[in-house]
Amino acid sequence: MFLTFKHCSLYRSLESDLARLKEDQIKRSTAYEKQIRDHKDSDGDYQKLIKSLGNEKAVLSAAVEARDSKLIRMDELKQEVHSLKEKVEKDRKVQSQMVSARNDTTSVLFILFTGTERCASIS
Questions:
Q1: What is the pLDDT of residues 28-50, one digit of tens each?
Q2: Which are the contacts of 11, defined by CB distance < 8 A and separation ≥ 6?
Q3: What separation in angstroms does the CA of 56 have from each of 43, 63, 69?
């Protein structure tokens, strides 16, 4: 069987199509490999971001725990202040009672002393 002009042009057309397909395949393969590299690079960036966010979360959690412990300590201090205020008020009352008792004692001693002097002067 002999190849005719028609067969030769078809053959050339097929070769041309095949060459174009190979070029397209190479371009697509190159583009795909570039996409893979880009995804790997962005994956590394995402992993760094995730690690950074994890660290930030740990820092914020520690800050929240510190704040909570300060709030607990503040409640304890408020209770202590309340207790101390009650003690101070009680001490003021006792002090006032002592001043009153001292005044009463002074008055009684004065009366006794002046009464003893009068008795001594009468006898």
A1: 999 999 999 988 888 888 999 99
A2: 3
A3: 20, 10, 20
Per-residue confidence band for 4, with pLDDT thresholds at 50, 70 and 90: low
Copy the structure tokens of residue 111.
């009366």
Residues 41 and 29: their CA atoms lie apart, in Å, by 18
Cα–Cα distance for residue pair 50/89, rounded to 1 Å: 58
Residue 3 has pLDDT above 60, yes or no: no
Contacts of 3 (CB under 8 A, 6+ apart): 11
Do you know the residue count of the chain? 123
User: Beta strands of the chain (E only): which ranges?
Assistant: none
Reduce the DSSP state of residue 3 to 3 states and report it: coil
Chain center to CA of 66: 7
**Rounded mean pLDDT of 8-31?**
90
Query: In whole angstroms, what is the distance from residue 83 CA to residue 72 CA?
Result: 17
Which pair of tokens denotes residue 98? 């002592």
